[in-house]
UniProtKB/TrEMBL annotation:
EC number(s) on file: 4.6.1.2
Species in which this protein is naturally found: Trichonephila inaurata madagascariensis
A GO CC annotation given for this chain: plasma membrane
Lineage of origin: Eukaryota, Metazoa, Ecdysozoa, Arthropoda, Chelicerata
Reactions accelerated catalytically: GTP = 3',5'-cyclic GMP + diphosphate
Protein's UniProt name: guanylate cyclase
Length: 937
C-alpha cells in the first residue's frame, strides 16, 4: 500500500458488476464502512483486477442480528442486480443458506459459526475471519514444537469454546497427542466459585505437566493462582497454555490480557507464576502502511455514500474488521477476474467459489493468509509470554514471543520463535518427568539406599517426637479460638448527655452508620478533630472499647491465630489488656479494656486539669515501662505510638494500646473520612518511615523512640505534638527529646537508656501512683466549684434563649403552657377577623431581582409591618414569601373589637406601603393586595 490511494472514477464504457455490503450501521458498520468504498476504488484502479468491468457496491443496514431484516435487504439487493454479498456481521447461517439457494457468493468478515463450513449445505460461502475452531491448528503446532505429547484439557461450557475443544481433540488424536482428561468449567464462572479449579489441580497434577485452558481470563488467573498455592510453579515444571480467541494483541495495551484490576495487582505482586503461562491470541496487524489504511477508512466513511459524522478532535479507532472487509473485496475481485478469464459467469456463485477456495492472499493486515477448501481463512495467531520489558527492565509484561506461518491449506502452521521465552527453570517443561510420574522409567534404587532413608526417617521421627506434645498443645490453643467474641454477647453502649450509658443496637454496622457521637473519651479519637471512631460496650461484665475493622471478611489463617494468641497473652500493668475480637461480618472488630479517663490526649486537652511535674513524671514513667515490655516481647515494636493510643485508667495509670494485630488490621477498605482522620498519625511517625515507600506495618523500635519523643514534647507543652513546651521543663527537652529526634535512627537511644536518662525526673515519687494523685485531686477540687458555676450560668443563658425562641414561634399563652409542661388543649373561638395580604406583581419583581435583593426586600417590608402590628390587638400567624397573615380575636378574645382592630391595621399598613422604599429599585413603589375575613375559628 502506498500514498496513491484515492477515489477512482469508473469507466462509463465498461459494464458494471455490483456487490452488496451488509453491516449493522448502529454499531460496527459506522467504523468499517469506509473499507468497502476503499476496496472498490482500489479494484477499479488496478488494471489487473476486472480489467473489462467496473466494480460497484450497494450498502444496506442489516439491522439487529438473528432477524429477518437481513434477508429482506438481501432480496432488495438481488433485485437491484447485486451478484455477490460482503457481510453480514454477527449471525450468518440463515443468510448463507439464502445465498446458496440463489447461487450467489457470500464472503463475511465477522462470523465465526462453524456450521457454515459445511460446503454440502453452504457451497457459496467464504469468510476472511477464521472460525473459532481454526486456532486448534496453532495449539497443536505449539504442542508439537515443544514435544508436549500429553495434556489435560479445561474447557468453558460455552458453544464456541466447545467447538474449539472438539477440533483440538480431533487434531490431537491425528498428531499422536494424548489428552489425558477433559474438564468442563461453568460458562458463567466467577472468581468466588473456584472449587472446581481446586479439585482439577489436586486430581491431575500428579499425572500431567501440561494444561490447555480454553476459557476466560478469570479462569486462567485463578487456575494459575491455585497451582502456585500448591507450589507447582516454583520449579518451572508445569506449563499452562491459554487461549484468547477474540482480543487482538496491541503493543500499546500490553496488559489487556490481564484486564481486571485485581488480576493486574496480583500479577505485579507475584509475576513468577505467570512465567509458566503461554497465551495464544489473534495477531496484531504488521503491515507497514496499516495506519495509512486506517486513516483512509475514516476518510471514506465520512464521504459519500455513508457520510458518517466525524469528531474534529477525537481520533476514531478503526477495528480490525475493516481490514477483513477490505480483504473480502480483494479476494472476490481476484477470484472473479480469474473466473471471467475462464468464461465463467459472475452470476454462477458456486463456480466462482471454486476460484476463492484454496487461494492464498496477502492480507492488508500484513499476513500471508490461506482460504482453505471449506472457504475459511486460516487466520494468524501469536504466542504471548511474560518477559522483561525492554523500556522498563524491572517490570515484566505480556509480549509476543512466537508467530505461526501457514505452509498449506490443510497442514499445520509452523511455529517461529521471535524472542527467547523466560522459562522459570531456564528450559521448557518436559511433558513428563524423566523417570515418569511414578518412577517406572528408571532403574530400581539399591536396597541399601532405601534402608538408609528409612533409618534417617526413624531418627527424625524420634527427635520430632520430643516436640509433638508441646506442638499439640499449642495447636489446640490455636484451634480453640479463646479470643473469639460472639456479637450476641456484646452489649453496645452510647453516652448520653448526662454521662450515663444506655444500651444500643447489637450491630456494629448499624452503629457506624448511625452517626452517634460518644461523649466518652475514646481510644480511637482523632488527634486533630476529636471524631470518635470506636465505640464502647459491655462484654461479660467488662466495659470495653470496640475498634471497627473495615473488612468484608476475615480469613482465620494460622499466622493470624498465632498473632491473636500472642497479643492475648501479653500482661503488664502498663499494657491495656486485649479482650478479644469478633470476626463475623459485618461486625469485624477488636475489643480492649475500657478506661473511664480516656486517652492521654484527652487528659492533655482538659484545660481544667493541672499537671505538675510529679504527675508528668508518673505518666512518662508508665509509658517508658510499657514500651520496654513491648520491645522485649515477640511483638518487637508498637508501630503506631501516639498520645491517643495511651489511655489512662481510673487510678491515673497510663496503659499502652493499639499495638500488634498487624495482619488482622491489614488491607482495610477505609471510608474516605476515616482515611483522612487516621492520616494525622504521621505527626508522630519517624522521618525514615515517612520517606520509605512501603514502610513495615509493625514499625521499628527506633521509630517508636521517635514517637515517644513527640509524645514527651506533647505532654510538656499540652499544645499538641508541635506546640511549645513549658520553659521550666526545658532541661528534659534538651537531654532526652532531642536524642529521640535524631535524624539517624542508630543515634537514638532505646527505652532502657531513656528510663535511666529520665530517672532524675522520678525522684521523690511514691511507689503508689494513687498516693501521688491525692494531692493533685485536692488542687483540682479547688477549681471544680468555679467551673460548675460557670457551666450553670451558661446553661441558664441557653435556656433563656430557648424560651425566647419559643415565644416568637407560638402564641404567648400556648408557649407558657408548654414551658410549664402542661398539655395544650385545643380552643374554639366564636368570631375572629383575619387579615391577609400579598404584593401586587411580586413574581415579576422577583424575576428581575437577584435572590439576595428579594430577601432584603422582604426583610425590610416585614420589619416595617412588624413594627406597626405591635400597636394593635392582633397576632401575626405566618409569613410565606410575600404573603402576610394576621388575626385578631385569638388567642386572647376581645369581644367584637377584632374587626375594628384588623380594619385599622389594614389602613395603617396601606399608608405605610405608600412611603416604603425598595432598596435596589428606589424609583418604584409597591402595591399591597389586602383581604379581610370575619368568621368562626
Amino acid at each position: 500500500m502506498n500514498a496513491t490511494f484515492g477515489k477512482h472514477t469508473i469507466d462509463p464504457n465498461k459494464p458494471n458488476i455490483t456487490i452488496g455490503f451488509l453491516s449493522s450501521f448502529k454499531e460496527l458498520g459506522k467504523l468499517i464502512c469506509g473499507a468497502i468504498s476503499l476496496a472498490v476504488d482500489m479494484v477499479n484502479a488496478d488494471s489487473g483486477l476486472l480489467p473489462k468491468h467496473n466494480l460497484k457496491f450497494i450498502a444496506y443496514d442489516s439491522g439487529e442480528p438473528n432477524t429477518a431484516i437481513t434477508i429482506k435487504k438481501m432480496t432488495q439487493m438481488k433485485e437491484e442486480g447485486v451478484v455477490a454479498f460482503i457481510g453480514p456481521d454477527h449471525s450468518c447461517v440463515s443468510e448463507a443458506l439464502v445465498a446458496a439457494a440463489w447461487n450467489m457468493p457470500m464472503i463475511t468478515y465477522k462470523c465465526s459459526d462453524s456450521k457454515v463450513s459445511e460446503k454440502m449445505i453452504f457451497p457459496t460461502f467464504a469468510r476472511t475471519l477464521p472460525p473459532s475452531s481454526k486456532v486448534s491448528k496453532s495449539l497443536i503446532s505449539l504442542l508439537k514444537h515443544f514435544t508436549w505429547d500429553q495434556l489435560v484439557l479445561l474447557v468453558s461450557d460455552n458453544p464456541s469454546e466447545k467447538q474449539i475443544a472438539e477440533a483440538l481433540i480431533h487434531l490431537a488424536h491425528k498428531n499422536d497427542i494424548a489428552i489425558l482428561e477433559t474438564f468442563y468449567l461453568p460458562g458463567d464462572y466467577l472468581t468466588k466459585d473456584n472449587t472446581t479449579l481446586k479439585e482439577i489441580v489436586m486430581q491431575t497434577y500428579k499425572r500431567t505437566r501440561v494444561y490447555v485452558l480454553i476459557a476466560d481470563a478469570y479462569s486462567l488467573v485463578d487456575f494459575v493462582r491455585f497451582m502456585n498455592v500448591q507450589g507447582l510453579l516454583e520449579g518451572g515444571e508445569y506449563v499452562v497454555i491459554a487461549l484468547e480467541k477474540e482480543e487482538t494483541y496491541n503493543p500499546d495495551k500490553e496488559y489487556q490480557f490481564i484486564r481486571r484490576e485485581f488480576e493486574a495487582a496480583w500479577l505485579v505482586a507475584d509475576p513468577v507464576p505467570f512465567r509458566s503461562v503461554l497465551l495464544v491470541c489473534p495477531g496484531a496487524p504488521i503491515h507497514p502502511d496499516y495506519s495509512l489504511f486506517q486513516d483512509l477508512v475514516v476518510n471514506y466513511s465520512i464521504s459519500e455514500p455513508f457520510n458518517i459524522p466525524s469528531h474534529p478532535v477525537i481520533k476514531v479507532e478503526v477495528p480490525i474488521y475493516a481490514g477483513l472487509v477490505y480483504d473480502a473485496v480483494m479476494i472476490y475481485a481476484s477470484a472473479l477476474t480469474q473466473a471471467l478469464s475462464d468464461n465463467v459467469s459472475e452470476h454462477n456463485g458456486s463456480a466462482v467459489f471454486q476460484y476463492i477456495k484454496s487461494r492464498p492472499y496477502e492480507s492488508i493486515l500484513g499476513f500471508s493468509v490461506m482460504i482453505d477448501d471449506q472457504g475459511d481463512a486460516e487466520g494468524n495467531y501469536t504466542v504471548m509470554a511474560l518477559v522483561q520489558d525492554d523500556d522498563e527492565p524491572p517490570f515484566q509484561r505480556m509480549k509476543p514471543v512466537a508467530r505461526f506461518n501457514y505452509q498449506g491449506s490443510n497442514g499445520l502452521p509452523l511455529l517461529r520463535l521471535e524472542r527467547p521465552i523466560n522459562w522459570i527453570s531456564g528450559a521448557p517443561p518436559r511433558s513428563e518427568p524423566q523417570c515418569g510420574f511414578t518412577g517406572e522409567k528408571c532403574d530400581t534404587k539399591p536396597e541399601w539406599k532405601m534402608i538408609s532413608i528409612y533409618i534417617v526417617c526413624c531418627v527424625i521421627s524420634i527427635v520430632a517426637g520430643m516436640f509433638i506434645f508441646r506442638h499439640y498443645r499449642y495447636e489446640q490453643k490455636l484451634a480453640c479460638l479463646l479470643w473469639k467474641v460472639e456479637m450476641k454477647d456484646l452489649i453496645l453502649l452510647r453516652s448520653d448527655h448526662d454521662g450515663s450509658f444506655t444500651k444500643f443496637r447489637n450491630n456494629l454496622y448499624e452503629m457506624e452508620n448511625s452517626k452517634i457521637e460518644s461523649d466518652v473519651p475514646s481510644l480511637m479519637d482523632d488527634p486533630v478533630t476529636g471524631r470518635t471512631q470506636s465505640k464502647v460496650g459491655f462484654y461479660k461484665g467488662n466495659a470495653v472499647y470496640i475498634y471497627h475493622v473495615y473488612k468484608k471478611s476475615i480469613d482465620l489463617t494460622r499466622s493470624l491465630r498465632k498473632e491473636m494468641i500472642q497479643i492475648r497473652e501479653m500482661r503488664h500493668e502498663n499494657i491495656n489488656p486485649f479482650i478479644g475480637a469478633c470476626v463475623d461480618p459485618p461486625n469485624i472488630c477488636i475489643l480492649t479494656l475500657f478506661s473511664t479517663r480516656g486517652s492521654l490526649q484527652d487528659v492533655l486537652k482538659n484545660s481544667d486539669l493541672h499537671l505538675d511535674t510529679m504527675f508528668i513524671a508518673s505518666l512518662v514513667a508508665d509509658l517508658v515501662k510499657g514500651m520496654i515490655y513491648i520491645h522485649d516481647s515477640e511483638i518487637l515494636s508498637h508501630g503506631n505510638l501516639k498520645s491517643s493510643n495511651c489511655i489512662v485508667d481510673n487510678r491515673w495509670m497510663l496503659k499502652i494500646t493499639d499495638f500488634g494485630l498487624h495482619e488482622f488490621k491489614a488491607n482495610q477498605d477505609l471510608p474516605l473520612e476515616v482515611q483522612d482522620t487516621r492520616s494525622k498519625a504521621i505527626m508522630w511517625r519517624a522521618p525514615e518511615l515517612l520517606k520509605t515507600l512501603n514502610p513495615p506495618t509493625r514499625g521499628t523500635q527506633k521509630g517508636d523512640v521517635y514517637s515517644f519523643g513527640v509524645i514527651l514534647f506533647e505532654i510538656l507543652g499540652r499544645q499538641g505534638p508541635w506546640g511549645q513546651p513549658e520553659p521550666s521543663l526545658k532541661y528534659i527537652e534538651d537531654r532526652c527529646m532531642e536524642e529521640c529526634w535524631q535524624e539517624n535512627p542508630d543515634d537514638r537511644p532505646d527505652f532502657k537508656f531513656i528510663k535511666v536518662k529520665l530517672r532524675p525526673l522520678h525522684m521523690g515519687l511514691n511507689a503508689n501512683i494513687f498516693d501521688n494523685m491525692i494531692s493533685i485531686m485536692e488542687k483540682y477540687a479547688c477549681n471544680l466549684e468555679s467551673v460548675v458555676k460557670d457551666r450553670t450560668n451558661q446553661l441558664l443563658e441557653e435556656k433563656k434563649k430557648t424560651e425566647n425562641l419559643l415565644l416568637r414561634m407560638l402564641p404567648k399563652p400556648v408557649a407558657e403552657q408548654l414551658l410549664r409542661g402542661e398539655k395544650v388543649e385545643a380552643e374554639s373561638f366564636d368570631t375572629v377577623t383575619i387579615y391577609f395580604s400579598d404584593i401586587v406583581g411580586f413574581t415579576s419583581l422577583s424575576a428581575v431581582s437577584t435572590p439576595l435583593q428579594v430577601v432584603d426586600l422582604l426583610n425590610d417590608l416585614y420589619t416595617c409591618f412588624d413594627s406597626i402590628i405591635g400597636n394593635y390587638d392582633v397576632y401575626k400567624v405566618e409569613t410565606i414569601g410575600d404573603a402576610y397573615m394576621v388575626v385578631s380575636g385569638l388567642p386572647i378574645r376581645n369581644g367584637n373589637r377584632h374587626a375594628g382592630e384588623i380594619a385599622s391595621l389594614a389602613l395603617r399598613l396601606r399608608q405605610a406601603i405608600e412611603t416604603f422604599e425598595i432598596r435596589h429599585r428606589p424609583n418604584e413603589r409597591l402595591s399591597l393586595r389586602i383581604g379581610i375575613n370575619s368568621g368562626k375559628k
